[in-house]
Amino acid sequence: FKAEEAAKTELPLEGTVLLSVMDKTEPVREIAREFVAQGFKLLATEGTQRFLAEADIACTKINKLQEGRPHIVDAITNQEIQLVINTPAGKRSAWDDSYIRKAAIRHKVPYITTLAAALASAKGIAASRKGRAVVKSLQAYHAEMK
Q1: Measuring CA to CA, how many Å separate 5 from each of 37, 39, 110?
Q2: Most buried pick, 50, 76, 138, 141, via CB within 10 A?
């Protein structure tokens, strides 16, 4: 794995988003609604899927690696997942986070680790679809501030 390869991975404009998050809070539902509104399919691990279902958000459960096949790594390997949103959960699920992250990196699937970045990505994808996305480097933004 090379850092330059990860930097070349772009956010998808369609497909399937995997949600596996520790904190089950309203921002998770907002993120899920944003992706669903854009036509993305959602996959989620059991707890996240249950949390989203309580809010009537369509989402399909996917197995973690230790829960049997088909599981997350199978779906990433088979190019069935185009974006991974997996918030770190501390020592308790460090192993889960590790194998998901490694599979995403190996198969060049964008991997997001914070809810703020996930929401920004969903909104950025929406703007890009509408032709309103403007991409600039940080250096360009700093140059404009002077």
Answers
A1: 30, 28, 11
A2: 76
